[in-house]
Amino acid sequence: MIDDQKCFEAVRKLRWPEAVTCPHCDSRQVTKRGWDETQHCRLRYHCGGRRRDFDDLANTIFAGHHQPLRVWLLCLYFLGLNLSNRQIARELDLDEDSVHDMATQLREGIVAKQPAVVLSGEVECDEVYVVAGHKGHPEAVKKKGDGDVGDV
Predict the structure, then answer these.
(1) Helix, strand counts (H, E) of the chain
(2) Is the dihedral of CA 142, 147, 151, 152 positive or negative?
(3) Exposed / middle / buried, residue 72 (Cβ in 10 Å: 0-12, 13-18, 19+)
(4) Domains of the chain, residue spans
(5) 25 to each of 29, 52, 54, how far by Cα in Å?
(6) Residue 80, Cα to own-chain centre: how many angstroms?
(7) Which member of 19, 58, 106, 134 lies 3.0 to 4.6 Å from 140 by CB, making a disulfide possible if both were Cys?
(8) 15-42 residue pLDDT tens
């Protein structure tokens, strides 16, 4: 995955498993428009429906950043290994602030793509007895006569 070409191919396969669609309108009327001038592995496209151009990273968390895609994917991989920002910065030869910003954006992007939780079926709840305000001393809560059968 360290090769730029393989990184862009992986993003394309994950993003568009069947066919490339426009990120703005989901149209399949898409034609290839060559390669990006700055990143030669990054494909450009043209949407026939909205008549807009876009590329492999349009409307993703990777768009609009100066770090190469392989650095973002390696950062994501290291986050999956539970490495600290300091360790990731050393591995990628970046400063910790940059890695912190990247990690934050990656985490927020993952959370934003999480589907909403939908509960269904039967739900059971057990009773809960909470003694609050007496720091673990339930005797302080007892009222006079709580233990007596005749007091109601």
Answers:
(1) 4, 3
(2) positive
(3) buried
(4) 1-60, 66-131
(5) 10, 10, 12
(6) 12
(7) 134
(8) 999 999 999 898 888 989 888 887 888 9
How many CB atoms are closer than 10 A to CB 92? 18
Biggest CA–CA distance in the chain, Å, is 90
Quick: pLDDT tens for 64-91. Answer: 888 889 999 999 999 999 999 999 999 9
**Spatial CA neighbour of 74 closest among 39, 98, 51:** 98
pTM, two decimal places: 0.66
Alpha carbon distance 102, 72 (integer Å): 7
Gyration radius of the chain over CA positions: 27
Round to whole Å and give the CA distance between 29 and 10. 22
**Is there a contact between 40 and 27 (Cβ–Cβ < 8 Å)?**
no
Phi, psi angles (nearest 5°) of residue 75: -60, -45
Tokens of 105: 């954006």
Residue 57 one-letter amino acid: L
- Under 8 Å CB-to-CB from 148, ≥6 apart: which residues? none
3-state secondary structure of 88: helix
